[in-house]
Design goal:
- It is found in: Golgi apparatus membrane.
- Belongs to the GOT1 family.
- Keywords: Golgi apparatus, Membrane, Transmembrane, Transmembrane helix.
- One of its GO terms (biological process) is endoplasmic reticulum to Golgi vesicle-mediated transport.
- May be involved in fusion of ER-derived transport vesicles with the Golgi complex.
- The protein has two domains: 91 residues, no CATH class; 37 residues, no CATH class.
- The radius of gyration is 16 Å and the shape is globular.
- The two termini are 24 Å apart.
- With 130 residues, the protein is mostly helical.
């Protein structure tokens, strides 16, 4: 439960920091809470193995490099690198997430709208497994 709370607060602080024009203090707090929460949820060893798999080193470099750049005071550049690294790291989860959201009543309807459907299909057809 602690890990989910830390991860949730981390996402909240990251979102709130981006809304407030990339406030570096909020983004730094959000990054630390997100990574700590992830470690609490799946464990330190599994977190380390997830981030440092050989085929995920590029994604890990972008993500953790973005975190370090945010912590040093360049929030916009750091968040761009982080977001790119996040999508590279977690792209294997996107088909599962899209499938789940399509079963939610209101969100599923929105994802099946003509313009959005083709974009969601491209995101959801990723063959890379985690």
């Amino acid at each position: 439960e602690i890990g989910m709370g830390l991860t949730g607060f981390g996402v909240f602080f990251l979102f709130f920091g981006m809304i407030l024009f990339f406030d570096k203090a909020l983004l730094a707090i959000g990054n630390v809470l997100f990574v700590a929460g992830l470690s609490f949820v799946i464990g330190l060893e599994r977190t380390f193995r997830f981030f440092f798999q050989k085929h995920k080193m590029k994604a890990t470099g972008f993500f953790l490099g973005g975190v370090l750049i945010v912590l040093t005071g360049w929030p916009l550049i750091g968040m761009i690198l982080e977001i790119y690294g996040f999508f590279l790291l977690f792209r294997g989860f996107f088909p599962v997430v899209v499938g789940f959201i399509r079963r939610v009543p209101v969100l599923g309807y929105l994802l099946n709208l003509p313009g959005i459907s083709s974009l969601v299909d491209k995101v959801g057809e990723s063959n890379n497994m985690v």
